[in-house]
Amino acid sequence: MENVVISGMGIISALGCGVEQTLRALREERSGIGPLKYLQTEHWDIPCAEVPFSDEELRERLGLSAEEVVTRTALLGMVALQEAWQTADLRHTPDKRLAFINGTTVGGMEKSEQYYLDFLENDSRNAYIAAHECGACTEKIADFMGGFSYVTTLSTACSSAANAIILGENLIRAGLTDIAVVGGSECITKFHLNGFHTLMILDDAPCRPFDATRAGLNLGEGAAYVVLEKESSARKRGIQPLCRLAGYGNACDAFHQTASSEEGTGAVLAMREALKTSGLQPSDIDYINAHGTGTRNNDASEGRAIMQVFGKHTPRVSSTKAMTGHTTSASGSVEAVIAVLAIRYGFIPANLRFGEAMPELSFTPVPHTLENVKVRNVLSNSFGFGGNNSSLIFSAVDPGA
Amino acid sequence: MGVYIGGVAAVSIQEPLSEEGIFRPVAYSSPQVRCIEPEFRKFLEPMVARRMSKIVKRAIVASSVALEEAGIPMPDAIVSGTGLGCVEDTEKFLDAMVRNGEHCLQPTFFIQSTHNTISSQIAIRLGCHGYNNTHVHRGISFESALQETMLLFGKGSIHSALVGGYDELTPPYFRLLGRIGYWREEVKNSLHIVQEPAAGTFAGEGSVAFALSENAQGAWAQIEGVSISYACPDFTREAGLFLHRLGLNWKDVDVVMTGKNGDLENDRVYRNLSLPAGQTTAVYKPLCGEFFTAPAYGMYAAAVCLKQGMLPASLAEDGKEIKGIRRILLLNHWQEKDYSFILLSSCGD
Hints:
The complex is a heterodimer.
Chain A: E1 4-13, E2 16-17, H1 19-27, H2 55-62, H3 72-87, E3 98-103, H4 109-121, H5 134-145, E4 148-154, H6 160-173, E5 179-186, H7 190-198, E6 222-230, H8 231-236, E7 243-252, H9 265-278, E8 287-289, H10 296-310, E9 316-318, H11 321-324, H12 331-345, E10 377-384, E11 388-395
Parallel strand pairs in A: 3-4, 3-5, 8-9, 8-10
Antiparallel strand pairs in A: 1-2, 1-6, 1-7, 5-6, 7-11, 10-11
Helix pairs in contact in A: 2-3, 3-5, 6-12, 9-10
Chain B: E1 3-11, H1 20-23, H2 46-51, H3 54-70, E2 77-81, H4 87-100, H5 107-111, H6 117-126, E3 131-135, H7 141-154, E4 160-167, H8 171-179, E5 206-213, E6 221-230, H9 235-245, E7 255-258, H10 264-271, E8 280-283, H11 285-288, H12 294-308, E9 310-311, E10 322-323, E11 327-334, E12 338-345
Helix pairs in contact in B: 3-6
């Protein structure tokens, strides 16, 4: 079966704008978590990982006027899509069918929560009513670049972007599109900051994934897209593939709406399915970019699941959410970009703030960036509310061919 | 290997879990009509039901009836479409936060606010660990979900699936959409809404679930193809290409069932289609009202027609019943940006 490869990518997160800034921040172990600057909330003291640009700065960067009806989730998506578009050189593809699949859950909630009473009581904010829907947000992003003949939106909470990547691969394999730009976009809203707060899973300090003393997650925001196409298609266009999407698994924990099962049933199934579709053995995996939110429940459940799948020989594991924060619906593609960078540049990103091993786990995460490592296969986990668990495997491609 | 509708169930503004509403639909004279609820206590323990929002309860009932009818205790995949998701719980959390500030909020409504609550609650109830996904793309959310499911069948990774379209519309959200021109102020007779075109339509709701498998025995209909298209420049041509890819052409289609809803702007797109002369057309939105996943109700109506081998007067655009129906093409568009195509055929010979 022909390889489906990644031929371009774009990203924006608390680590900065673009692949270059992201790479530098990862290697320098720079965390984007800090005090809130842009979101107006009573919970100003809860640390988050905001994208370090205001809406106005993002509009300016994109050349959008102040009157343009656009939400922050869409702005972030446009920045990431633009970079993905440029790196994969999609300008010169008039004969290709392009698909855009976006994962988001908050959609336009960031404006809806500001204008909710106006929506109900007067006509002053009507332009933002339609912008509330997830699909409207996706179309806004798609139309910024144009040229897509297939556009859809997935929402499986924190695994949305990972599922967008899986759907993109399936569309290409079925011959329904030539190129699929896939990923997710999500800004921090008061709505889900408060939601996570009521669940008591937000740490009031910078998070410590896979640490015995971990006390919750930090919300992040961002957007990332990868460009998928068949290897022959990329090479014919003169594009050197960055890596290939080797395998994927989607399973449902079917346990609880917000908690993971103790043994990580869904996580085990998703990882095993990803290994099966890739044809790889557990021992072939060089690095696991874990979901690793830093909550008591996730890290214990995911950790046990990793032990169950990989046995005694656990690959190197880290959660980069200690740097990016939890970018929720975008996390699957934010971390896909990180996985690609690990393969391309031969390093294992750090799991910041790790101090004390979890007694129930046989492994500890990689505490500091490891350079000069041969990374050929990376497993990336994304687990969402409702037990929507997805795992992806990215693999190096031979430069020749 | 074909994909067949082995079971289907709908909770809608017509009689719940019954085909009665297709043949003898209830007429309404209000711009917002909410679902006629099934007897939830027949399906859900009272303690469980009390904690669930309407949309989740309806989805669980519709899906369990559809699966039971198809004889599929555990589907290989659960894929849902919902345009707006769990609006009721989202609003409860949002309203409390906006009016009372960011303290003393209850987690329950947040937990159940995410769009994937429906798919995951169905999975939790069934104990189903299979493929699970949720599509949330405006007026083609259901078709997008259905198309992904067909891909999974096509590559052989599943042999059965539960697919559905689920949307609820609360009075506040109805008001919001009214501000941007969705609804008429007055509706005389919902069943005549297409014959009396004006600006806006009337709002419905629905939860329609389909149990799909590769077993043609006793099935309602075969799903021959599904496609979605974004900003396609020529709707007629795109529909023709869709048929062509399935090895068919217009003369193979007995009925074209469109998403007309009486709104002038919306229906103009269908009126501008260049259909073959004398093509029989049908409409379903007068029966179910407009909502983001109304096309799921359309597919339900089409499946009923194919099982019966006839197009009832209630669906026929010219009001005339026709017998000997074997293939129905469903066409839908959302604000002239998102387009969908579904082709169903009868299983009998």
